[in-house]
Every structure is written in C-alpha cells, then in structure tokens.
C-alpha cells in the first residue's frame, strides 16, 4: 500500500514537471525567445487555456488559501501535541498545487493561429498568430513566424501590436512578380508589413494606424 502510494506521488510529480516544462518551452517559443515547432506550441497553448482559467479564476485562489490555512492549523496542532511534523506530506500537499499553477501560468495568454502561407521559391512557410490575455476578447498582438520548408521548425521573426481588436483579420500574400510577401488587413489594400526573401522592406509595427504607409507588394 505504501509502495503504491509512493509510486502514485512520483507519477504526479513527473507529470507536473513535464507539463510545466512543455508549457514554458512553448511559451518561450511563441514569445520569440526560442525556436520551436509552431503547431505543437499552439496546440499546447490551446489545450491548457481552459484548465488555466478554471485553476486561476474558479478554484485557484480559494484552494491556495485553504492550503495555507490547513498548514498553519496542522502545524499548531502538531506543535501542541509535540508530534513530529510530517514534512513529506506537507511538501506534497503544498507544493504540488503551487507547481501546477506555475506550469499553467504561460497559458494566461491565449495564442490563436491565423493565416498561413507557403512560398516555394523561398523554401519557407510563414504563419501569423494573435495573442492576448485569455480573459480578453480583443487580440492586440500579432506575431509572424518563419518556418522551414516542411513548416515544422520555426522562429518568431517579428511581433507587433495591431491595435485593432478581434474584428481585424490579417492575411499573408505573396507577389511572384516582385518576389515580396506582405501582411495586410482584410478589406484594406495597404499592407502593414512587407519583406523580400532576404530583408524587411517595410513594417509599421507599433505605428499601425499612423500616416506612414508601406508600399504595395
């Protein structure tokens, strides 16, 4: 019985550490700090968004207060009875919920995949994705990811604020005559980002909404 309990706790600890590592690596990639696999990172983020919201906004804070209260009461009781303090039990009871919160923390920012485009002459695949706090319906940030020919190994090459909320939809297009790629808003002929195979020609970034315009690709 004791052995099965130890194995169960070891499995729980292993699961939580793997969850934390995978979630934080995906978050660092999506934020531009690390290269990674685009669709895997987005899938991890999307799968954990709802559990994160439930953890932090429905049961997180009350459970945390309950744990703290339990530890304080139990410590006083054991001190009064002069019994040895069960450190291993307290470690599992207190640290596992805190570690789960730490593991789910990156998914407080939801990543929603947008348009994708394959450019055969460049041997590249591009993705755009929107991000915002999970409890906010307005997506204020837009990120551009450049991937290899298979569309797997990717880099976040540019991030900027769109300042348009959830109503704006951006599209990736490629002009073979000028050999340029652009990011433009649906229903708006003026692009906000233009690049060639080797360099960025124009980006409006945080200046989106000002008078400066990018040339048409």
Question: Which structural class best describes the helix and strand composition?
Answer: alpha+beta
Low-confidence parts, pLDDT < 50 over ≥5 residues? none
Total count of helical runs of at least 4 residues: 3
The radius of gyration over CA amounts to 24 Å
Binned strand content = 25-35%
Number of strands: 9
Spatial strand order of the main sheet: 1-5-4-3-2
Major β-sheet profile:
5 strands, antiparallel
Q: Approximately how much helix is present in the residues? A: 40-55%
Spatial separation of the terminal alpha carbons: 69 Å
Short note summarizing the structure:
With 217 residues, this protein is of the alpha+beta class. It contains three helices and nine strands.
Would you mind describing this structure in some detail?
By secondary structure, this protein is of the alpha+beta class. The protein folds into 2 domains: 2-107; 108-207. The chain contains 3 helices and 9 strands; from the N terminus they run αβααββββββββ. The chain has helices spanning 2-30, 38-81, 87-104, and strands at 36-37, 109-119, 124-133, 141-147, 153-161, 170-175, 180-185, 191-195, 200-203. The strands form 2 sheets. It has a 5-stranded antiparallel sheet with strand order 1-5-4-3-2, covered by helices on one side. A 4-stranded antiparallel sheet has the order 6-7-8-9, with no helix packed on it. Strand 2 and strand 3 (124-133) form a beta hairpin. Helix 1 (2-30) packs across helix 2 and helix 1 (2-30) packs parallel to helix 3 (87-104). The mean pLDDT is 73.
């Amino acid at each position: 019985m004791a052995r099965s309990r130890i194995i169960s706790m070891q499995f729980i600890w292993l699961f939580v550490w793997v969850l934390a590592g995978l979630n934080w690596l995906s978050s660092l990639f999506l934020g531009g700090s690390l290269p990674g696999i685009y669709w895997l990172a987005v899938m991890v983020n999307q799968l954990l968004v709802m559990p994160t919201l439930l953890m932090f906004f429905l049961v997180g804070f009350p459970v945390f207060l309950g744990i703290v209260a339990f530890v304080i009461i139990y410590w006083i009781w054991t001190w009064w009875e002069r019994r040895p303090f069960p450190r291993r039990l307290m470690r599992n009871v207190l640290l596992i919920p805190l570690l789960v919160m730490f593991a789910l923390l990156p998914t407080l920012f939801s990543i929603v995949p947008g348009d994708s485009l394959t450019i055969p002459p460049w041997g590249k695949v591009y993705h755009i994705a929107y991000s915002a706090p999970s409890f906010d319906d307005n997506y204020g940030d837009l990120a551009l990811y450049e991937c290899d020919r298979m569309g797997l190994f990717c880099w976040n090459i540019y991030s900027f604020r769109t300042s348009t909320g959830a109503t704006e939809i951006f599209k990736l297009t490629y002009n073979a005559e000028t050999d340029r790629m652009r990011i433009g808003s649906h229903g708006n002929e003026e692009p906000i980002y233009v690049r060639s195979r080797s360099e960025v020609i124009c980006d409006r970034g945080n200046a989106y909404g000002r008078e400066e315009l990018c040339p048409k690709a």
